[in-house]
Amino acid sequence: MPVTSATTPLVALTNISKHFGEGDTRVDAQRQVSICVYPGEIVGLVGPSGSGKSTLLNVIACILEPSSGRMLLDDELIYDARWLKRDQRKLRLDKIGFIFQFHNLLPFLNATENVAMVLELAGRTPAEAQRRAVELLEYLGVGNRKNAMPATVSGGEAQRVAIARAMANRPRIILADEPTAALDSQRAGVVMDLMSQVAVEQRAAIVVVSHDEKIFNRFNRIFYLRDGYLERVQENGGST
Amino acid sequence: MTVSAVIIALIIYTMTMDKIREIATLKLIGAPDRTIVGMIVQQAIALGLTGFLLGAALISSFRTYFPRRVVLQLQDGLALAAITLVVCLVASGLGVRLALRVDPAKALGG
User: Fold this and answer.
1) Closest to B108 (Cβ–Cβ): which among A122, A165, A177?
2) Which three-class secondary structure state does DSSP give residue B44?
3) By CB atoms within 10 Å of each CB, which of A42, A63, A92, A166 scores lowest?
4) Contact B107 A92 (CB under 8 A)
5) Which of B26, B29, B102 best tests the A interface by mutation, with the highest count of A CBs <10 A?
6) Which of B109, B95, B67, B71 is nearest to B5 (CA)?
7) CATH number of the domain where residue A167 is located
């Protein structure tokens, strides 16, 4: 049983490298990247296109196998030169929540059903799932939209529903891919406030890939990537 | 029957193609393959049933307008329903194959 203290990182990558192809066609997408993200933190992965942000996010999401290195998620060794967990799908369901640029809510399910679905996948009964989904929507201020279909809610509301879905199974790690790119400044601020609230109250580690400079000051730390390297780390202070 | 199977397969395939992002999202958040396969098979069965019922309704509505008729007994109708179901299940294979190959990374990356 993993034991996580306040100082134990929820995401710990050590010398993670990833290359595609071999010989003349070899592309190094990640070169010896080491980062740690602690409970209650929101960190940004920032860099120009091709810097390796998405590759790193895919590695942390356990959908892309690194070429070498070591990775611990929630104090559990997941990768050490090879996957140590056979079922990465279950790992994602239990440990990781996802927030997307375009919310990616299922268009044929209403807000509550979108959140409840993740809970049912994890084995909750439909009644339990429904109850927790409504609680989460209320916690995030969209309880009044619980029966709305994704096509009928605003971008900000849809992103709140997506945050509720990401939090549904109480994951300790939340990965967000450009979560504010499709939102105006005001709504982006609200979404970042909610993510900060989730990080602090749920003691979760949130990793955000973003190009959106208006939210850089909301990160506790920013990891700048360039050409697959971790170029520098900027500390923003914040609430950790 | 082969032509019907091909048409149904192509429809299911196209409908699955339109849902690549949703399927990738489901896979990324941890939905097992059986859930995704189940959704596609349900869709194929719904399509087949809708077609069968629509056909049956058309036959019963317009049969009196035709001078020559083929008499279909209840067991013929049931056999046709079973064949339709089997054709739909077989035809959904192409969509299932596509769905199982969807990379969950497609849900990320905008």
Assistant:
1) A177
2) helix
3) A63
4) no
5) B29
6) B95
7) 3.40.50.300
How many domains, in total, are found in chain B? 1
For A92, the closest of B29, B105, B110 (CB atoms) is B29
**Any domain includes A176:** yes
* pLDDT tens digits for range B7-56: 888 888 899 899 999 999 999 999 999 999 999 999 889 988 998 899 98
On whether residue A114 sits in a domain, the answer given is no
ipTM comes to: 0.85
Provide DSSP, B52-98.
Answer: HHHHHHHHHHHGGG-SS-----HHHHHHHHHHHHHHHHHHHHHHHHH
Q: Show the domain range for A208.
A: 11-108+154-235
CA distance A63 to chain B (A): 7
pTM of the predicted structure, to 2 decimals: 0.85
Residue A6 counted as domain residue? no
pLDDT in the model for residue B32: 93
CB A121 within 8 A of CB B26: no
Reported as a single tens digit per residue, the pLDDT across A177-215 is 999 888 888 888 888 988 898 899 889 999 999 988 889
Residue A17 placed within a domain:
yes
Beta carbons of A63 and B28 less than 8 Å apart: yes
CB contact under 8 A, B108 and A54: yes
In the block, residue with structure tokens 């850089």? A216
